[in-house]
């Protein structure tokens, strides 16, 4: 059996190098004729197949079909590279989900990772590991944990409510019962557009992206206040008045602490006066929180909470500070249907 005849047939069938199969077939036929070896059928078959493949390759090159095939192959590879399992998402990545509509209505095992500078539906802010469960705890126990932890991770990632505004909300991926069996314990936290529309630009404003120490100090103080103000008890006031009083008492402490932090920071001269006024607003809000903690009834509680909002939210000192720090200085607008909206979650396994 002539070895070149076998090689020619294999090359002709595989079609990866058509001219090689053609050459090997011709060499095999010459040797078989001279030496009387077997394998002429395979050599002829390999030669014919290779000749056809060679002609097709030449035709593709002449008509531009090869370039089109290469572009299609490259686009397919690029798309595969962008496709990530929801289990593999990393902090700082932006992504889009397949399909249209609100994200909570679109379950997906994989998403398309895209540059944050371009249009996207969501941005990963961090993740944490569920602990203390021997068996799968179920969504009813996972979701409250995800809400609380992701709220903190999201805002310590973004740190500027005026950048996030009403365009993005809390969204997270949690383990499924199936992925739990495989060892999945991670909850992935994101900011996402509530209706599945798209936004552009990262909302990240943490030490990895903010070089100005004064900006970072101010944004961190404001974020601490925002987070404590958002840790409202799950139940209505009437069902849990002690929970609301505890929330008010703890928030009073956070506001007072941040007033001290702001006063202790070495602000440049242009910011010293405005930051002192802002610290004063923190202290007045802390006093209102303390009064709310001691309120005798629900009406009195919310009256004091109204004072907190009036003192802290979007006041003149805050706008002045933002202008001096070259931060966004126009208060964000919140669509009516997203005011106070809760986070949404999805199983990521």
UniProtKB/TrEMBL annotation:
It comes from the Bacteria. InterPro entries: DUF4190, Septum_form. The chain crosses the membrane at residues 6-30, 42-62. Residues 92-206 form the Septum formation-related domain. Residues 5-60 form the DUF4190 domain. Keywords: Membrane, Transmembrane, Transmembrane helix. Residues 328-349 are annotated as: Disordered. This is Putative membrane protein. The lineage of its organism: Bacteria, Bacillati, Actinomycetota, Actinomycetes, Kitasatosporales.
């Amino acid at each position: 059996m002539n070895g070149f005849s076998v090689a020619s047939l294999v090359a002709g069938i595989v079609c990866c190098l058509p001219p090689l199969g053609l050459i090997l077939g011709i060499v095999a036929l010459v040797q078989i004729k001279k030496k009387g070896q077997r394998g002429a059928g395979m050599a002829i078959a390999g030669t014919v197949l290779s000749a056809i493949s060679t002609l097709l390759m030449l035709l593709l090159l002449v008509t531009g079909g090869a370039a089109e095939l290469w572009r299609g192959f490259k686009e397919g590879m690029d798309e595969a590279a962008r496709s990530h399992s929801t289990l593999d998402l990393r902090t700082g990545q932006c992504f889009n989900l397949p399909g249209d509509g609100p994200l909570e209505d679109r379950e997906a095992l994989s998403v398309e990772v895209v540059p944050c500078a371009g249009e996207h539906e969501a941005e990963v802010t961090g993740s944490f590991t569920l602990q203390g469960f021997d068996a799968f705890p179920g969504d009813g126990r996972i979701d409250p944990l995800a809400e609380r932890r992701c709220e903190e991770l999201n805002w310590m990632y973004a740190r500027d409510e005026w950048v996030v505004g009403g365009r993005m909300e809390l969204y997270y991926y949690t383990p499924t019962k199936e992925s739990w069996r495989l060892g999945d314990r991670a909850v992935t936290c994101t900011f996402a557009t509530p209706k599945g529309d798209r936004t552009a630009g990262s909302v990240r404003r943490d030490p990895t992206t903010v070089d100005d120490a004064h900006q970072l100090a101010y944004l961190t103080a404001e974020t601490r206040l925002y987070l404590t103000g958002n840790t409202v008890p799950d139940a209505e006031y009437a069902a849990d008045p002690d929970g609301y009083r505890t929330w008010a008492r703890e928030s009073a402490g956070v506001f007072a602490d941040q007033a001290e932090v702001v006063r202790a920071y070495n602000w440049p001269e242009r910011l010293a006066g405005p930051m002192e006024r802002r610290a004063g607003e923190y202290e007045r809000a802390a006093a209102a929180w303390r009064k709310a903690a001691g309120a005798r009834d629900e009406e009195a509680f919310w009256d004091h909470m109204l004072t907190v909002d009036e003192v802290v939210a979007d006041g003149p000192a805050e706008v002045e500070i933002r202008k001096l720090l070259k931060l966004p200085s126009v208060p964000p607008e919140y669509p009516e249907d997203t005011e106070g909206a809760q986070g949404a979650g999805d199983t990521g396994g």
